[in-house]
Amino acid sequence: MKIVYALALAAAPLAACAPAAGRGTSQPTPSAVAPLLRLEDRREYDPAVFQAALASPSAPLRRRAALAAGRIRDPRSIAPLGALLSDADTAVVATAAFALGQIGDTAAVPLLAPLADPARIAVAPTVVGEAAYALGKIRHPQARAALERLLTDAPREGAGVREAVGMALLAIWRQGRPTPVDAIAPWLRSADPEIRWRAAYALARRAEPRATAALFPHVGDADPLVRSFAARGLTGPMADSSGIGRTAAQDALVRIIANDGAYEPRINALRSLGTFPGPRTLAVLSAVAGVPRNEHESIAALESIQRLGRDAASAATLLGEIAQSNSRPVFIRQTALAALADVDSTRAADVARGLETSPEWRLRAAAVRALVEAEGPSNNRLMTFAADPDPRIGAAAIEQALTAAGDSVGPLRDLLMAGLAHRDAIVRTNALAGLARLADPATLPAVLDAYQRAQTDTLNDAALAAVDAVAAIDKKQPGAAARFLARFPRSGDYLVRQRVNAAWGDTLTGAWGAPLPIETNRSPADYERMAEVERRGIRRATIVTSRGDIHLELFGGDAPQTVNSFLSLAANGFFDGQEWPRVVPNFVIQGGDPRGDTSGGPGYVIRDELNRNLYLRGTLGMALSGPDTGGSQWFVTHSPQPHLDATYTVFGRVVRGMEVADRLLPGDRIIRIRENR
Hints:
Elements: H1 30-42, H2 47-54, H3 59-72, H4 78-84, H5 90-103, H6 109-112, H7 125-136, H8 141-153, H9 161-172, H10 181-184, H11 193-204, H12 209-215, H13 224-233, H14 236-242, H15 246-259, H16 263-273, H17 279-290, H18 295-308, H19 316-324, H20 330-343, H21 345-353, H22 361-375, H23 382-386, H24 391-405, H25 413-419, H26 425-438, H27 444-454, H28 461-476, H29 480-487, H30 494-504, H31 524-536, E1 538-545, E2 548-555, H32 560-571, E3 582-584, E4 588-591, E5 619-622, E6 634-637, E7 650-656, H33 658-661, E8 670-675
Helix pairs in contact: 1-3, 1-31, 3-5, 4-5, 5-7, 7-9, 8-9, 9-11, 11-13, 12-14, 13-16, 14-15, 15-16, 16-18, 17-18, 18-20, 19-20, 20-21, 20-22, 21-22, 22-24, 24-26, 25-26, 26-28, 27-28, 28-30, 31-32
């Protein structure tokens, strides 16, 4: 998946709750937790194991079983989880509510709605908040009504309001349009800044005129997060349809860019300003891109110029100068060239010809993309680009050629077939993606051979892409799937099995069987050791970067498999010397990719360990390409990102060094990561 703003420690109670006093509050033994970890890891629901754990006299074991049920997401667990909603221990109740939200079945709505009761806020705020959050994840009229009632009738201040209302505000936007502005907007006037920014986020998350009109008066709020979300909502189309007017909205954004002392509002204002074509916008964006306060603002300005496309033609000279400037960071130059390609493709091609032999692979990749975009898929050098000694260049060339080709991929056939012979799995993956679009039955033998070759890859990307290509061919000429199944035995990779099942469904029961449970090849002793990691709880580590140190607190109690994998890779030097492959200002920095282009991994995947921790500033999360695809890539959030909550595993947070994270750019280095013992 991501200001020197406080780490939002005041919001921590929203992610935890104190158990009620009573029996059975000691931590369960590793031997008691290990069977749950095994089932969780296998994505297997065993009613007998769960019935015993959910009925245990140990409240922590009941809570742990509820969390495991939510991660497995088997609808058979809805009834026993519903029974836990009347548990004497509030931590158990809150976790059961969270788990029901993760399962996402509408059958849970009548169970959860009574808990989202404003009258319960003072006595059980965390339960109310978790029930509200779970309702947000289940789109249903009754769920929407319960959330609106909670936000409308809740007391404006007092004990528990932050915990309950704060979670309801993070949930309500998930119910879709129309946004219930009348229920949300009053919370923008709360005395609690934590409540205000959550209300602003809820209104900004989906572009709607009434929501934008409600946000506009708060662009000058005392809290930088409120200002940032208000700025996010002030796009050109919304300024028109909300009645604010483009001039007033643009004036507000320019003031934030020029005068705001905080990072988040300036970045969001730069992004929104890119939806206001015209000379004034270009003057502001060009000034920031040319002489930025910090490089993240330069990135945001360049990307907004790119969004303007040919309306930003007058900025082409500046973009070319930045792209060719040896004094600017490589990623800034790369971003400038990408913007120039959309603003003036002919000039971008001229600049790219001077960069395609650069020793910096990022600049070469950007140059190749610009040349292919300018010259189209008929570019007679595509074969040369695709065969570059650096496979990242070849992968970029094929990807850009497919983008430029649109629906007409026929002219790329020779390029795609040649790509299947490449040594690099990602080049082959991109070639197979093109062949899936071509869907030519004549390519089936080559696609099947590509799947065979992918069995020796450390990454599964090419195998997955080959399945997609076979499925596309089978739709055009039935029989391709039968040939695939006749040639290849059931894959040991559960992600491949899931892809095959998604393509052909129950018709494959006899050939490959169900994709779940997952064969993990772990012994009972392995799960006891994992349970011991969970029991141990907090671990600590330091990321030493080329710009300074980032100190982490790792949540072994919430994500033992993820923490164990991260620390094992770190101890083996896996991260040493890697580039930061991705930085999105005011969103995330992403690391852990041995390739440097966000396509790499450790050669294995781990299951998601979704939990109740929220994505606040400095949260450490696991990057994914789909559910249960975690590996070595992870990210740190620059600011709160509620849309990531309970979707990407949270396994730690930054406790010191966020100012370093605010400076990092792609191409900067991770020198090493080590556990602090």
